[in-house]
Amino acid sequence: MTEPVKWASGRVRFFRQPFHEYSLRERVALSQMPLFVTTVLTAILVWAFFRETMGNPLFAVFLVSQLAIMVLCYVVPWERLPYTSFLLLPLLDFVSIGLGREGGQESLIGISLLAVFPVIWLCASGYYPRTALWLSFLAPLAIIWVPLFLTGEVTGPNLARSLLLPVMTLGIGVSISVLTLSMTRQQQDLEKKDAQLQDTLRTSKRHESLLNTILDTVHLGVLAVDADGNDILMNRKQRANHKLATPQDIADPNESQLLVFEPDRTTPVPVAERPVRRAISGETFTDYLVWLGSGKDQRAITTTARAMKDQDGEFAGSVIVFSDVTDLVNALAAKDDFVSNVSHEFRTPLTSILGYVEILQDDDPEEHQKNPLQIIRRNSERLLTLVSDLLAVRHGQLIVTPQAVDVAELVRASVSAALPKAAASRVALQAATPERLDAHVDAARISQVLDNLVSNAIKYSPDGGSVLVALEQHESLLACRVTDTGMGMSSEDQANVFTKFFRTSNVRRTTIPGVGLGLPISKAIVEAHGGTIDVESSLGEGTTFTFRMPV
Q1: pLDDT mean across residues, the chain
Q2: Under a CB-based contact definition with an 8 Å cutoff, are residues 455 and 420 in contact?
Q3: Given 101, 191, 248, 524, which is the most exposed site by the fewest CB atoms within 10 A?
């Protein structure tokens, strides 16, 4: 009972896969099958209507030979023989059909048409195409002419009458050969393209594996999302970040449920302002600081996003990079605390020094003592102001007291005070100001900004040069520009020039004094007036600082 099931399943399998994917034995059997089935149908017709033909020895040999050929298809180990050995079978078919024609032509006409099947087999095989075409004409012709010669019935009309079948099979052979050649070329092209696709796929997989390895190696969280916000790629570090931001009572939170806090570490970041949401909306940003998680495991993360575009330039998604800067943030906080503590410690002795200097000045000192006391007082007041500014910047509480002031006069006074230092440094210092420019500002604070910018311009022009301080008004804004032709700075240094205690790489290699506090304090003063300050510089060509504020 199992054999029929196997045969049935085999037949179903035959019709469910491409011909070239079968084994050689199966292909040989399938190629012989049409002729064998037609022979079986022929035998049934003859047995039903022309039983006397069944007794004809030639017809019987025809039937037996077809059965034998079919058996050979299965029992011969074709895989172990020379590959084209199976082409012997269609040649045997021609002989078998010739015998069947002679034994059954009195009962059935057209048995010779069965020669079409071996012709198709030979021509469709694709092997020896010229020989196959010759055989497609000569073999059917031999099926008809050989009996004529054997019986002595060779006449012109008899020979001519039988040419139609060989010509017809030749035409069929030509058509099959052309189709086979075309299909073979198509198959070769497909196989070549398939090989290219497989090679491309292997290369793509190697690149994907390399990319995943690299992404899992770096200590940055990387997340790629499409235009709809679906995750495309997330590396190992980012999965850890996501787990950190996941509430304990929610297994699979959405973006609004993640623990994402503002720099104060307690205020949740609004959903629309969270890094991933901003990135999905097409926004590009750099070093956006948030805190992930809660409690002692909370981490400071800076995020950077860049948009992806498709071939049409349309938004296709974003890549967001998450960098853990907890240690850096804690170090900066510790540094600020240290500066604050030191500044507090400086305030008391400086206040004491100023107090005693004032007592000495009020005690009618001698003439030669007045100037040294004044120098002590001036520098002590400057140090006290610096300490106060450090504390104010540390707590974000820099206080300004705006009044109606002629800013042009402040510029000229600052330039005039710096002229001796400029002359000593061989720097040509000039001021370009209107005769008067009134603004509502804190005169002492603006003078502090001007003195710092002019002093820096002279100090960082060690080989001489020129410094120009220009003041002008644009509608409701005043703009002051300090330009020098000194050392200049790189683009990397420009990005950090307003950072506390920062000194450029060029300056660190020189003996030019400084602690990196003047520009951060100047920036705080300008921003306290509602203004802005920026820098433009080229290494070796000079620097321009410009601050703008409402008049």
Answers
A1: 84
A2: no
A3: 248
